[in-house]
Predict the structure.
Amino acid sequence: MSHRPIAVLRTNSMESRPFSRVAFAVPRRSQSPREVNISQVECGSGIIPKSCIDFCCPPERCNHAKLASPQSFAAVLIALLIIHGATESYLSEVMPTIVFQFNIPLILSEWILVGHKLSQVITGIIVASYADSNRPARLGGIIAVSAVACCTLITPYKEHGDVRIQTSVSREGPQLCNFARMGTDTQMIDVDKETCWVMVSILILYQFLAGVCATALMSHGITYIDDNVDKVSSPSYIGAAFGLGYVGRKLGSLLGWICLSVPMSEDSSSFTSVLGSWWLGWPFLSAFLIAGGAVICLFPNLMPSTAVKNAAKTILNNLREESKPRDARENEAESLQSENKNEDTPPDTSLRATLSRLIHNKMVMISLASSVFLEAGLSNYMGIEEVYLESVYQIPKQKSLQGHGMGKFNDPWISRLITGMLKAPLIAMTVVVSGLFISRIKPKATSIAAWAASMGLLSGICLLLTLFMVCPSKINGEVNGRLDLETLCNINCRCDVEPPDTKLLASVTATTAIFTPVCDEERKETYFSPCYAGCSSYDHIRDIQVFNNCSCIGQQSGNHMATLGACLAGGSAACQYGWIFFQAMLAFIQVIIASAAVGKLLLCLRCVLPQDKPMFFGLEMSVTSFFTFVPSKIVYIGLQDIACMSWTNAGTCQMHHSKMLALSASILTSCLLIISGTLMVWVAIVAKGLELYENDDDDEGFEYVGNEEMSDEDTSRNCRDGTPWPGRKKRRNKYENEEVLQPELQQMIAPDHPSNIAEIRKANSDPSPQNHENTTEL
């Protein structure tokens, strides 16, 4: 190993230079020796027997210390974050099919989808409190339990799939007039009559464990990386974990789309032939989670590299103390005792004391409040994105186009397809690059907080700009903020048909409350769906879906045709390009907010004690989840209910008032984002002087000295280095005392060659380049 032996062993003995009257400043946190138990650095963390590990991976073939590196742990953690994100988005993708098959109420299904966030409200602090030791093993155990819960989701499909009730649902094709009597486009399928509460219970349990797993990945995994890498490299590791983990959400959505494209049964007479195989992805996700949990359990409680650094620091600190004169040591001990008798006492790590320290930490509380306003606004606004597009720009939801033979990757609205595919990679790349940028450039704490503040303020302003691109188009039957879809021309089409059981909310939504606009090209009038336009047939002309025999269209001209999609109100640019501008602006807002995520987290990790970092994650996730998904979500649901123009008998909203929804949702979200940015301005003021990249190895070789305490030799050396000596940290060589350190260095570096140090010392004293070229590297 070549690490410049001349620089490593260069000495400044006390005999060669006068003793400085400024004593070596040993950090108080390092004065007490740090003993490392050998079991803490062994693979398996004491759970897996060492004999089993040696049998599977013999030490002569596997270097366990080399495998247990921060890079390998980060790779495993990133894989787990990707899989966990995939399970979250996979459930969101297949949830409508589960709701339909097991007759789960829609309102209940919406709360189940955010159940993992509600779980963090209860378990966030509790899970984080168990991150004091053995973090890899506990993280692996929690992941294994979550993987078992994934497998249990298949059980109701096998046990309760035969309880059925007849109801009419469109098998394929759009909603047409009198569709219930058209045998080619419909099929009588069977679903559960009563709600399957077994499935509901399993879903709630799984979401609860998924929330626990998400908390453990942060409080156990991220803090483990931050504790075992140097502070300069930590932002790059954290950025890579967050950024690449975000890609898992898009992968899970893709997996759900693939599984739903596979029918449950090949028998065309069976109801399962029209439902996708929603359960097909769970075994694969469970297997990946179990494998990842098993691998992460192998990591030691303390990285070997970290243990070596800690042991070296302890030895050097003890040697420095021994090298001091007795009078200086006694005076320093008396001064420390007089200042604070409990200075060296370890801080209380109990739950109450840890929470008290975090609550009284001004920077943590302000940053936490900023995160609450940011998440409350952005998460809930993203949750109503499809409703917003549907009401303001009359763009139907992607799921409503499945009946028209259009899936996720043949969306006729190309802009939505492009932004949906590129948004996740852009956000992930932004997070990764921001982490690398911080590690490379090392900006100050105030600069990072100022950037986060500016991005929060800019995102709020950008969201307000979307209000200038609201489409003024209306739907046929919309009068004075109310929507009456039934007219004389479609009253016999049975567009509002109800199933035999009014509790079958999923079927109501699937058959009658889907917004699929069609346009009367002659009058430039938009109808809610082909059924409400009185259309009884359809055809495809040059990849354009055309509806024929529409009783409500062309009553004077005789042209009873309509095309899929809303009409442009007088060719308005707001209707033609407004929704493209809206989606681009929304993606831009997410990207700029993501650029500040790593920096905000770094500020909080550096302003708390190392043992308080897991509890910070638990507190942050618990508080943020509560305010985002309880009061804020209720407020956003209330705004949607107020803006609703038409309700079904099942209690679902068919269409919202465009201007009312746009104004209320956009203004509220913009205010929350601006408040979040304003709070980060306060953080920038408080964070002045916060050290983010202090390297432990270098800091213990520094002391801060004043102008009057520096000797002439020190001043001349600083001038040679090119940095003015006032206010400079003077570097002391860690191996300052030659007489004390030479035996230890000889034993640690070259025990079999006692002449190496003398030869290198001789080479150092000779300035000729020939001797330096002949110096042997150790």
